[in-house]
């Protein structure tokens, strides 16, 4: 890029080429920034989703255990009991269910923590707003409208009359 104060003037073509190259570089850099921010948020979101899915799967697999515990509780309530002594099977199934719920809760907390860290691509938005503000202040030079040639208008009018 030449120094505008060195006494030489650049042509209109050089100025347009320079402006086009700089705008292209600016847009390219803004797109790269947005991609980097979005890539980071997608990674966080994927980890949070995986943890949430794991919590759901563990909770889903623990539901049959709750059903078994309920079945054995009814069995014990109606007179059935563990013939080997020790803890009743109801308490064993309930402890297993509680452990699964605890694991599901930990996965759920991990998912919640990851989703809370998601945020908008603030740098890209700020950069785009700044570029838009700059572009709003740019005023194009008015171009003269080409004069309509009377010959073309007369010819079009005569063609319209002859076809009627």
Protein topology:
Elements: H1 12-77, H2 89-116, H3 122-137, H4 150-162
Explain what you see.
It is built from 4 helices and no strands. With 164 residues, it is mainly alpha-helical. The mean pLDDT is 75. It is rod-shaped and about 105 Å long.
Indicate the mean pLDDT: 75
Shape field: rod-shaped
Low-pLDDT stretches: none
Radius of gyration: 37 Å
**SS elements, strand count:** 0
Q: How much helical structure, as a percent, in the residues?
A: over 70%
Secondary-structure-derived class: mainly alpha
The largest sheet, given as strand count, sense and whether it forms a barrel, is:
none
N→C terminal distance: 61 Å
Query: What proportion of the residues form beta strands (DSSP E)?
Result: under 5%
Number of helices: 4
In brief:
The chain is mainly α. It has four helices and no strands. 75% of the residues lie in helices and 0% in strands.
What descriptive keywords fit this protein?
mainly alpha, 4 helices, 75% helix, 0% strand
């Amino acid at each position: 890029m030449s120094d505008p104060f060195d006494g030489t003037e650049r042509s209109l073509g050089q100025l347009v080429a320079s402006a086009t190259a700089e705008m292209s570089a600016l847009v390219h850099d803004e797109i790269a920034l947005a991609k980097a921010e979005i890539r980071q948020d997608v990674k966080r979101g994927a980890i949070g989703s995986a943890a949430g899915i794991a919590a759901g799967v563990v909770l889903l697999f623990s539901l049959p255990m709750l059903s078994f515990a309920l079945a054995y509780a009814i069995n014990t309530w109606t007179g059935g009991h563990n013939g080997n002594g020790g803890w009743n099977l109801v308490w064993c199934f309930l402890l297993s269910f509680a452990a699964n719920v605890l694991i599901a809760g930990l996965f759920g907390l991990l998912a919640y923590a990851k989703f809370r860290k998601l945020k908008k691509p603030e740098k890209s938005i700020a950069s785009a707003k700044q570029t838009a503000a700059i572009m709003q202040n740019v005023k194009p030079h008015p171009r003269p409208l080409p004069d309509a040639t009377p010959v073309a208008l007369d010819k079009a009018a005569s063609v319209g009359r002859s076809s009627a």
